[in-house]
């Protein structure tokens, strides 16, 4: 045990030190001080277990020093050694949690007895703290094990609602929505080191709660999730930005590539498994091609051969509103599955198709969450009914989307162009404003307006330029910048291509009328 002695009388400090050294070999005097200010400094620097301290000292007295040390949150015990046997002092000392109050001149037996009692209390306190620490560590490790096991079950097994409820009793959180990413690490390296590195990065960067799963084949799954009382993050851009940053940091530190696959976000617990499989497939896809390090699985990569073509036909029939054709394609497919696969395998195959359809719907800006659990179907007939019910729901969502796209999403995009034509607009920027993926935005814009995005932006800019040329005396250079062009020569070429006249020729023509 470490002891400090603070007293303005040097002889008293010397006497106390000698008593301790001669009779208490397990106690070490680590420092001495002559006033309250030195007592505070000693407490901070040496962290003694016990401080023997006088009350009346020059400057800051002993009780003031004890109060200041307590306010700093320093954990040590005090024994007052004072010549003043006053009740007010004793009462104040008790308020500060002082263990013993000894009177000067210090009697050897009293000092030794007081130190032995406090030493026993300190030892008991340390033992209790260590037991609590070990218990907390055991609880933490057990909780981590439960969470890891729960995550494995979530990723790989079909679990009934009752089982989920039992799991909830063991978990310190609930999940309102979430999404997976799967990280594929390089061949070289130690799994524990990679996992430790990731946990350290996420602890400082993750925008929401997360759980790290078990490493397998150099792949590590991570579930990001929010509880019902948390905010609602914009899952895809937020997690994608985090994944890109992780890949950059890993490359900078270890000089190797990290491939990260992302799964779609879901707001139902029983659908998060689909997000995991999407992320797993995406990680494999990017690692195999080594063209990009982070991303969602491209739609064309999810299916192969005849499956891809059939799924494309199914989605096109749905998108065009041909529900009868879509139902026929779906029924034929389920019958093929039921005849060539076990019922659980057929259910998983059907689930893959609807996961793929859901991703295409999200690219159109349609939020779709599957209600049916194909894995729980007990017969081929039940599987057909579940698939058709889901198909009808998708068809209804697409019908609403078709009705809204002209005056809704695409109309919103058109209005945005009309307001921001003078800015350096990009297809990606306007598609984001409309809430549609750039690929489908470009396709739908051409289908609906009969003109490409670029041509429409050009038309708007040239029309505004024509108005300015006719109605103002601004210079051609000013008008060029006013309508969104940075190069006057390029502006003149585009203007002449659109109107058959150069800007100056057009101005002369309209002003001559």
List the helices and strands and how they pair.
Elements: E1 2-6, H1 10-23, E2 28-33, H2 36-46, E3 50-53, H3 62-71, E4 77-82, H4 87-95, E5 100-103, H5 108-156, H6 161-170, E6 177-184, H7 191-205, E7 209-212, E8 219-226, H8 235-254, E9 259-262, H9 272-289, E10 294-296, H10 305-319, H11 323-340, H12 343-363, H13 380-405, H14 409-420, H15 427-434, H16 438-449, H17 453-471, H18 476-482, H19 488-499, H20 503-511
Parallel strand pairs: 1-2, 1-3, 3-4, 4-5, 9-10
Antiparallel strand pairs: 6-8, 6-9, 7-8
Descriptive tags:
alpha/beta; five-stranded parallel β-sheet; five-stranded mixed β-sheet; 513 residues; 10% strand
Can you characterise this structure?
With 513 residues, the chain is α/β, with parallel strands linked by helices. The chain has 20 helices and ten strands. It has helices at 10-23, 36-46, 62-71, 87-95, 108-156, 161-170, 191-205, 235-254, 272-289, 305-319, 323-340, 343-363, 380-405, 409-420, 427-434, 438-449, 453-471, 476-482, 488-499, 503-511, and strands at 2-6, 28-33, 50-53, 77-82, 100-103, 177-184, 209-212, 219-226, 259-262, 294-296. The strands form two sheets. It has a five-stranded parallel beta sheet with strand order 2-1-3-4-5, with helices on both faces. The chain has a five-stranded mixed beta sheet with strand order 7-8-6-9-10, with helices on both faces. A hairpin with a 6-residue loop joins strand 7 (209-212) and strand 8 (219-226). Helix 17 (453-471) crosses helix 20. The longest helix has 49 residues, at 108-156. The protein is elongated and about 110 Å long.
């Amino acid at each position: 045990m470490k002891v400090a002695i603070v007293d303005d009388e040097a002889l008293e400090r010397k006497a106390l030190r000698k008593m301790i050294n001669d009779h208490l070999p397990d106690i070490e005097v680590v420092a001495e001080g002559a006033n309250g200010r030195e007592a505070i400094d000693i407490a901070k620097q040496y962290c003694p277990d016990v401080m023997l301290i006088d009350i009346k000292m020059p400057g800051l007295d002993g009780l003031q020093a004890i109060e200041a040390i307590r306010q700093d949150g320093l954990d040590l015990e005090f024994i007052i050694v004072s010549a003043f046997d006053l009740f007010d002092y004793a009462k104040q000392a008790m308020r500060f949690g002082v263990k013993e109050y000894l009177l000067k001149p210090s009697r050897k037996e009293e000092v030794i007895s007081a130190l032995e009692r406090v030493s026993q209390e300190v030892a008991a306190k340390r033992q209790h703290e260590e037991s609590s620490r070990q218990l907390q560590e055991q609880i933490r490790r057990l909780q981590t094990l439960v969470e890891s096991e729960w995550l494995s079950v979530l990723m790989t097994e079909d679990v009934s609602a009752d089982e989920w409820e039992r799991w909830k009793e063991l978990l310190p959180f609930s999940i309102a929505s979430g999404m997976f990413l799967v990280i594929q690490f390089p061949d070289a390296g130690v799994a524990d080191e990679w996992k430790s590195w990731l946990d350290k990065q996420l602890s400082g960067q993750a925008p929401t709660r997360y759980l790290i799963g078990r490493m397998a084949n150099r792949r590590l799954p991570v579930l990001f999730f929010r509880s019902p009382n948390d905010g609602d993050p914009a899952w895809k851009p937020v997690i994608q930005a985090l994944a890109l940053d992780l890949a950059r940091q890993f490359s900078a530190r270890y000089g190797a590539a990290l491939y990260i696959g992302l799964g779609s976000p879901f707001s139902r617990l029983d659908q998060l498994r689909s997000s995991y499989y999407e992320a797993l497939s995406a990680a494999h896809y990017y690692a195999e091609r080594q063209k990009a390090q982070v991303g969602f699985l491209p739609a064309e990569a999810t299916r192969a051969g005849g499956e891809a073509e059939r799924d494309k036909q199914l989605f096109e029939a749905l998108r065009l509103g041909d529900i009868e054709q879509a139902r026929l394609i779906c029924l034929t497919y389920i019958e093929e599955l039921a005849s060539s696969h076990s019922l659980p395998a057929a259910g998983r195959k059907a689930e893959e198709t609807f996961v793929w359809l859901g991703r295409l719907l999200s690219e159109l800006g349609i939020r779709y969450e599957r209600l049916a659990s194909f894995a729980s179907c007990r017969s081929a007939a039940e599987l057909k009914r579940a698939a058709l019910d889901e198909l009808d729901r998708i068809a209804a969502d697409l019908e609403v989307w078709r009705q809204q796209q002209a005056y809704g999403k695409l109309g919103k995009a058109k209005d945005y162009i009309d307001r921001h034509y003078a800015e350096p607009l990009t297809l990606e920027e306007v598609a984001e404003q409309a809430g549609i993926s750039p690929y489908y935005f470009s396709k739908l814009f051409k289908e609906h307006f009969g003109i490409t995005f670029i041509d429409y932006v050009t038309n708007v800019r040239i029309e505004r330029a024509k108005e300015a040329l006719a109605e103002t005396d601004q210079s051609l250079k000013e008008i060029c910048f006013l309508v969104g062009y940075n190069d006057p020569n390029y502006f003149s070429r585009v203007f002449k291509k659109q109107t058959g006249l150069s800007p100056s020729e057009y101005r002369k023509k309209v002003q001559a009328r």
